[in-house]
Design a protein that fits this description.
By secondary structure, the protein is an alpha/beta fold. The protein folds into 2 domains: 131 residues, Alpha-Beta Plaits, CATH 3.30.70; 283 residues, Rossmann fold, CATH 3.40.50. 30% of the residues lie in helices and 18% in strands. It contains 14 helices and 16 strands. The strands form 5 sheets. The chain has an 8-stranded mixed beta sheet with strand order 10-9-11-12-14-13-15-16, with helices on both faces. Strands 1-8 form a two-stranded antiparallel ribbon. A hairpin with a 4-residue loop joins strand 2 and strand 3. 41% of the residues are buried.
């Protein structure tokens, strides 16, 4: 199993223009001729303002490239460090680093980089904007069991859904049966040459009857005295459209199922057609510009079924997600429903490394707030200290390129209205 180390985290491209407080803080701490170990990057023409730093890589390319073994990775804290006495000043490490996190002092003829300041990085303390933070320990590790998915999966590069399913299985464990149907999730779980990509029991059925099939299995297991969690994993098309009747009926009957909707806001597996969770103004192949529709709020709709537990989650906040998975699994009477925000790099027309960034921005703009409904009460599980403008979310994807200012304002009003509704319901008995 992979080791987990503390990490200096930077929000990608979220620095205020012209800010260099982190560099100043680093210079004060280091007090040497090399200069700051963190570098600000202002690209005004690209509207990008961020920082370059060492990521303390698990398999450092700089270490592999160094011809004299001057670079080592610690087994204690994971920090990648450079021995100045061994460094010969060849500069190959700076060429090997794909993140621009290692630098070369041409005067001293030595390479230098961030080494996390012995676990107390001053740059993170001096950043007033929340861009830099030091995660002293990766708290999600306590939730993770063995990986129950093969290393290969037939999903697109950068797919958030594959990561979501892998994480879900590691948290829930192997004492489950997964019920699924057609969709991107089926691709992730069952299309490798060796057979199924998930290493737990699973059952495939039609898109119209997955909860019904899971119900039959759960009732039989209960009859023979087996306490096994039946988990339905489906997309938004299956959940909000094709299979909604079956889902709603199972919720009303109080069937003891854990239902997980992985929402990428369209029928991605069959050609990016609109689903009932496609947002206003979101491009799909069946909703061209000028034909915008407003989708349904599935998690709130499921809360109004008065089932024991409903929650929203995303891989951008994994500890929040893990806690909700375990709460949902602990429900023994009635249904638990989780609605997972899952960016699709193809259908949303974005870069293949942006899934987590988009998900985080969705939360911090209130486009996708994180909340849970438990024992008849709704409460928020995360609130951003400062809500970001919705434009910051929209600009990350090409699917909103058709939005003009009036349409963007309408989408903003939709987000505000939905958030106001949740705030009104929070803490009240439903």
């Amino acid at each position: 199993m992979a080791k987990f180390y503390p990490v200096l985290k930077a929000e990608y491209g979220q620095c205020p223009e012209g800010c260099s407080l982190c560099e100043q803080a680093c210079n004060e701490v280091m007090k040497d001729n090399h200069g700051s170990r963190i570098k600000t990057l202002d690209l005004a023409k690209m509207d990008f303002h961020g920082v370059l730093k060492c990521n303390q890589c698990g398999e450092p390319a700089c270490m592999e490239m160094c011809p004299v073994g001057a670079i080592k990775k610690s087994d204690v804290d994971g920090v990648v460090s450079i021995s100045e006495t061994k460094c010969i000043g060849c500069g190959l490490c700076t060429l090997a680093c794909p993140y621009g996190g290692i630098y070369f002092d041409s005067a001293a003829k030595k390479a230098f980089k961030c080494e996390n300041c012995d676990g107390n990085p001053r740059c993170a303390m001096e950043c007033p904007y929340g861009v830099l933070s030091y995660l002293g320990s990766l708290s999600t590790r306590k939730y993770l069991g063995p990986d129950l998915m093969t290393l290969g999966a037939g999903t697109c590069i950068g797919c958030a859904l594959e990561l979501t399913i892998r994480f879900t299985l590691r948290v829930l464990g192997d004492d489950i049966i997964v019920f699924r149907s057609a969709g991107c999730g089926a691709v992730a779980m069952a299309t490798i040459p060796q057979g199924a990509a998930i290493k737990t029991s699973s059952c495939v059925s039609l898109m119209t009857n997955v909860p019904a099939v899971a119900t039959g299995a759960k009732r039989y297991l209960k009859k023979i005295g087996r306490d096994i969690t039946c988990v339905v994993i489906g997309g938004d098309g299956l959940t909000a459209d094709v299979g909604f009747q079956s889902l709603s009926g199972a919720a009303e009957r109080g069937e003891n199922l854990l239902y997980i909707c992985i929402d990428n806001e369209a029928y991605m597996n069959t050609g990016i057609q609109r689903s009932s969770t496609t947002p206003y103004g979101g491009w799909t192949t069946t909703t061209p510009a000028g034909k915008e529709k407003k989708g349904k709020d599935m998690p709130l709709l499921m809360a109004f079924h008065h089932i024991p537990y409903v929650a929203t989650a995303t891989m951008a906040y994994p500890e929040d997600f893990a806690r909700k998975l375990l709460k949902a699994k602990a429900v023994k009477e009635g249904m638990a429903y989780l609605h997972i925000f899952s960016p699709c790099v193809v259908g949303w027309r974005t870069k293949d490394d942006r899934s987590i960034e988009i998900a985080r921005m969705a939360v911090n703009t209130n486009y996708f707030p994180l909340w849970e409904f438990e024992k008849g009460k709704l409460s928020f599980t995360y609130r951003a200290k400062k809500t970001r403008p919705l434009r910051d979310f929209v600009k990350l994807m090409g699917r909103f390129n058709n939005l003009k200012d009036p349409q963007l304002r309408e989408l903003e009003e939709d987000v505000k209205t939905r958030m106001a509704m949740l705030e009104t319901l929070a803490g009240r008995e439903l």
